[in-house]
Amino acid sequence: MKAALSNILKEKNIQSLSTNVFTAAINLATFLFLVRSLGQESFGLWVIFTTAGTLAALIRFGVTRRAIIHFASGSDEEIFKKISGSGLLLDLIIMAIAALLSFAVYLIGGQSLGMYFLFFKYYPLVAIVCLLWNSALTIQSAKQRFDRILLLRLIIATPFFIFVFLNLILFHYGLETVIHAYIASHGIASIIMLLLGWTSLSDLFNSRKTEINKILNYGKYTVLTSTGSSLLRSADALMIGMSPVLGASGVALYAIPFKLVDLISIPLNAFVATASPKMSKAYISGQIQNFKRILFTYTGAVSFLFVPVVIGSAIFSRPFLTFLAGTGYENEFATMTGILYTILIYGLILPFDRFTGIALDSSEMPNINALKVYVMLSLNIAGNAIAIFVYNSLVMVAAVSVLFTVAGMWIGWYYLKKSFSLNPMGIYYEGISFYKKLFISIRSFNISH
Questions:
Q1: pLDDT tens, position by position, 12-54
Q2: Tell me: the pLDDT tens digits for 317-338?
Q3: Cβ within 8 Å of residue 395, ≥6 positions away
Q4: Which residues, other chains included, contact 55 with Cβ-Cβ below 8 Å and sequence gap of 6+?
Q5: Rounded to an integer, what distance in angstroms lies between the CA atom of residue 440 and that of residue 433?
Q6: CB atoms near residue 18 (< 10 Å)
Q7: pTM of structure
């Protein structure tokens, strides 16, 4: 029994899923406390601040993270150190550029930056304090040390969660103090990662021009992909915030039902984290059939998992929205329900889009994945412009997400099928096989227990 339990706990998918479940639970509680402690306008400004910050981080680390994970997966220790050190050197240079640009915009623009004033004011600090924990995340992802990633995520999320909870019941500080606490929690995480030796700081002097060029040649496409992917998620909030009619309040209304995407992304991100290095390793070693099997298994398993989640969310939509928003948004429930129903369709097709993107990167076609993402982004921006500035409709904004995701699915599958002769029925068969094996494992554990 102990051996069976040990094997289950050591399974990479279980470790990755556990990491995402624990951290998502804390982040959800933090979200709920912030909705209730900040007014609708301030909460909308908080969403804009974090959305812009996430976009900036993905641009910064988009050059290096995917490349490091791809080339370091399965490499020997000497090559690993050269790749990780070269990646950190690039991250340091990009961090300095990002911090200086943000500070310059803040000095020049000042209050005229409007809803983006707080982002440009504080991003130089955010860029600095997030560097080392992001380095640790990349290195531990390449090593598939999901136990360490769990601890890292908890170290980042827990201090801020405690502050937000105390702020709700005791302090009642405003938005800027909340941002100060957010920056401090990330700074604490980076210091702890440095003390634990989980970053690539010790490998910095192993950086080599050859590895730097290798990362840049690969990363020039993945940064486009990560930036485009982030814009796909953030463009909605950023463009809604520009609307003279919808504004920050509209951002808040849209963000609440869209939280469902973060919740269903818990298993999706967990499986993506394990599928990515597996597919890279299979492709690099020439195991194309195994590469295809991994793609089919993960796409099918997550897609089947989302079906009951979507049905349940549709049935219990009102209790779900009440849970997220509290009683302060009762007059907006009709709008939020319309957004939620549309997002359910988006969530159902999201796994197919994500895993085709991972497969393109893993098979060293990041240029095609970048093309795919930017076609989607173009459709998103054009559709959002019509939905927001012509019709002032948040539901239409959600509907645009469905349309561009369908387009991305088609593009990704077209190029993968062209290169690997894929049969879509493989997704069904391998997805069913995944759950059969999981059922057998659970049954064997129960029998031994």
A1: 666 666 777 788 789 889 999 999 898 888 999 999 999 899 8
A2: 889 998 888 777 877 888 999 9
A3: 335, 338, 339, 342
A4: 227, 230, 231, 234
A5: 11
A6: 16
A7: 0.73
